[in-house]
């Protein structure tokens, strides 16, 4: 089973919006650039993974209800957010790590629920 680009884009958008909410809960509001970056990078990571790996063998639930893509999209999200923090260090690294962890968990849940 493969998914439409629209379906994948909506999943990525939901992941990005919830990522901003998670980041807003953990990061100070003065760090608005990091808040937006977490959301945008999460949406991009989820979209790019899901669209590039949108093939039946990766979308089939090997461990019901989880597919390989359900696991991999959040992993790429975590990597992208880690690289971002290495390139643009946040003012409060501990809180950023918490936001990154929450975002990764949310990305997994959203990928399982929406796709």
Describe this structure in words.
The protein has 115 residues and is mostly helical. The protein has one domain. The chain is built from 5 helices and 2 strands, in the order αααββαα. It has a two-stranded antiparallel ribbon with strand order 1-2. α1 (5-26) packs antiparallel against α5 and α4 (68-87) packs antiparallel against α5. The longest helix has 22 residues, at 5-26. The termini are close together.
SSE inventory with pairings:
Elements: H1 5-26, H2 32-52, H3 56-59, E1 61-63, E2 66-67, H4 68-87, H5 93-114
Helix pairs in contact: 1-2, 1-5, 2-4, 4-5
Compact summary:
With 115 residues, this protein is mainly alpha-helical. The chain has helices spanning 5-26, 32-52, 56-59, 68-87, 93-114; strands spanning 61-63, 66-67.
Task: Give the key terms.
2 strands, 77% helix, 5 helices, two-stranded antiparallel sheet, 115 residues, single chain, mainly alpha
Instruction: Provide a count of the helices.
Output: 5
- DSSP strand count: 2
The tally of domains stands at: 1
Q: What characteristic shape results from the CA principal axes?
A: elongated
Terminal Cα separation, in Å?
A: 11 Å
Helix content: over 70%
The pLDDT mean sits at: 93
Computed Rg:
14 Å
């Amino acid at each position: 089973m493969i998914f439409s680009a629209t379906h994948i884009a909506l999943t990525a958008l939901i992941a990005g919006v919830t990522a901003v909410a998670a980041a807003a809960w953990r990061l100070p509001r003065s760090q608005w650039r990091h808040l937006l970056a977490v959301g945008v990078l999460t949406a991009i990571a989820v979209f790019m993974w899901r669209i590039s790996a949108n093939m039946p063998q990766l979308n089939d639930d090997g461990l019901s209800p989880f597919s390989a893509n359900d696991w991999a999209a959040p992993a790429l999200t975590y990597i992208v957010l880690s690289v971002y923090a290495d390139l643009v260090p946040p003012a409060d690294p501990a809180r950023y790590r918490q936001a990154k962890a929450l975002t990764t968990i949310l990305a997994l849940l959203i990928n399982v629920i929406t796709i």
